[in-house]
Amino acid sequence: MTRLTRVLGTGFAVLVGLFLIAPVVVTVASSLTTTSYVTFPPKGITLRWYAEVFGKPEFLSSFVLSAGVALAAAAISAVVGLAGGLAIHRYRFPGRGALEAVLSSAFAVPTIVLGIGLLQWFAQMGLASSPFTLLLAHLVLTVPYAVRLVLAGLAGLDRSAEKAAAGLGAPPFLVFWHVTLPAVRGALIGGAFFAFITSFDDLTVALFVVTTDLQTLPVRIFNYMQYDYDPTVTAIGTLMVLFAVVAVVVIERFVGVARLFGADTDHK
Amino acid sequence: MRTRTTRQEAERSVSTSTTGTPAGPAARRGRLRLDGVRKVLGGKEVVSAVDLETEPGEFLTLLGPSGCGKTTTLNMVAGHLGADGGVIEVDGTDVTGTPPHRRSMGMVFQSYALFPHMTIADNVAFGLRMRKVPAAERRRQVEEVLEMVGLDGMAGRHPRQLSGGQQQRAALARALVIQPDLLLLDEPFSNLDAQLRVRLREEVVALQRRIGTTTILVTHDQEEALAVSDRIAVMADGVIHQLDRPREIYLRPATDFVAQFIGEVNALDGTATGGGACEVAGARVGATAVGDPPAQGAGVRVYVRPEVVRIQADGDGLRGTVRETRFLGSRIRCVVATGAGEVTAALPFDAQVPAMGEEVTCAWRPSDASMAVR
């Protein structure tokens, strides 16, 4: 590689990095402004807007709702993803092809279409808006992804290893526990992580499903911004970024984020 | 520690005595019997009425092309597939309906099938853990078996850090450490390069002779089968065509399939003349009947390997004209056109080479050729 291409390459990488990080920098910086409107660069430094956030109980209750639904979505996605992935990978049953097709095309459906559709469905079924309907709506987004990840994990598992374990004296449950489950462990954690982020982040679907009493954090911020565009919003945004960073660090501690997204970290 | 070992020994002798054989060395266990075993997969009978019986300590190979039912048969022996008919017995105990984890069989696979997330030591210890062997004893046995397969010092590695040959040794250790009734090898050498394949198979044979575990090998490689087996069962289309020692299989094939599948063969059509002899193109030639001798006058096919054919100037045998001679290094290939078609001879490199167009006689010892009813 010549010197020039190396310099250009580095320059390009820096630009891309800046482009990705700039909105976050703006949000974090402007949350510290002393002005009562959002501005960048911030004028002066104050933590007043953070105090504002904690002074508004509706934001806290929205956060609790969002986090609760996201946790549930993560857990259920992992379990259903495992069961669905195993069923599709291992068994031949009527409708298997259709199920796989639906699961893989679910990504292609715009979330706004999904929101409208779900609104209709829930109304028809007489389901009142509740954390439960919100969870159902988010599962539609997250389960297909979890199933996909589990399928990819299973594809990497040699069935002979399961046979070997059985031959060595492991009854079916222990074969599953010691051989099958470790093969999809990364997929399950990745699926759960994705489900949590998707659910916690979702605005489009939630807009259709929630009521005024039941607002997720993104919906709350969205509604708040329509009337007040003060730095409270950027303070919340900063807190959400912090929250995500903590989550990533925790997961990195236990599994490693790279491995979670299927990167092969073992270069032998 | 000492009491544990004693208890282990006691358990082992109890388990052998319950299988009906007197407590003795491992070599006395491992008598496998298949009686009319069948398997239907996807509407097709892939294994039809297979009968088989091994001697304890025997190395038996199921040899055949892909799709012949050899792997299906092995999977039924291991319990991974249920039999659709027939009986599978180990040491007199019917195991036909027994799930794999209650059969005592160590299996080694083409793909090694090691548990990727466990170290080599944990892989090998797996079977012992399932048997609730105490940790200290487990460590001792793992160490011992790893040394036996030449993997001492690799215990802490993960499978992906090992070469193919090393992984297969580890898989072998994992299968052997549980002291199985049977060792089942499913194409274990096929993923290795040619040199390593030969070396590892020699090691496996030596190990098997030493520990005396009855071993069933599945392979499509006839040279491998000839090299390692006490007996070979040649399979095609779900049936065993011939079950015999390698020498018999090679020199005296029972069917066209066996003759053609294993090496090169001269197949000559003739007529039985009774008393273990026959006539081919007007000449009397000797061949050994496999099974019942064919009735006088029956149409037979004689199978002669090129290596056993001698070319002589005269004498009893099949007369013909030399068509082609070719020096191949270890052998000289000589093709003779006879009344029964071309006969190929593989002569030793120092043999008297006949001239092209010379009239010669092809002869062989009757015990080195076989005949079967057409």
From TrEMBL, chain A:
The keyword Nuclease does not apply. Gene3D superfamilies: MetI-like. Pfam families: BPD_transp_1. It comes from the Bacteria. InterPro entries: MetI-like, MetI-like_sf. It is found in: Cell inner membrane; Cell membrane. GO terms for cellular component: plasma membrane. Keywords: Cell inner membrane, Cell membrane, Membrane, Transmembrane, Transmembrane helix, Transport. The chain crosses the membrane at residues 12-40, 60-89, 101-123, 135-157, 231-251. It is a multi-pass membrane protein. PROSITE patterns: ABC_TM1 (PS50928). Residues 63-251 form the ABC transmembrane type-1 domain. GO terms for biological process: transmembrane transport. Coiled coil: none annotated. Belongs to the binding-protein-dependent transport system permease family. This is ABC transporter permease. The lineage of its organism: Bacteria, Bacillati, Actinomycetota, Actinomycetes, Streptosporangiales.
Automatic annotation (TrEMBL), chain B:
Its EC number is 7.6.2.9. Residues 32-262 form the ABC transporter domain. It comes from the Bacteria. Pfam families: ABC_tran, TOBE_2. Residues 1-12 have a biased composition (Basic and acidic residues). Residues 13-27 have a biased composition (Low complexity). Keywords: ATP-binding, Nucleotide-binding, Transport. SUPFAM superfamilies: MOP-like, P-loop containing nucleoside triphosphate hydrolases. Residues 1-29 are annotated as: Disordered. InterPro entries: AAA+_ATPase, ABC_SmlMolc_Importer, ABC_transporter-like_ATP-bd, ABC_transporter-like_CS, Mo/tungstate-bd_C_term_dom, P-loop_NTPase, Transp-assoc_OB_typ2. GO terms for molecular function: ABC-type quaternary ammonium compound transporting activity; ATP binding; ATP hydrolysis activity. The keyword Transport applies. GO terms for cellular component: ATP-binding cassette (ABC) transporter complex. The keyword Oxidoreductase does not apply. This is ABC-type quaternary amine transporter. The lineage of its organism: Bacteria, Bacillati, Actinomycetota, Actinomycetes, Streptosporangiales.
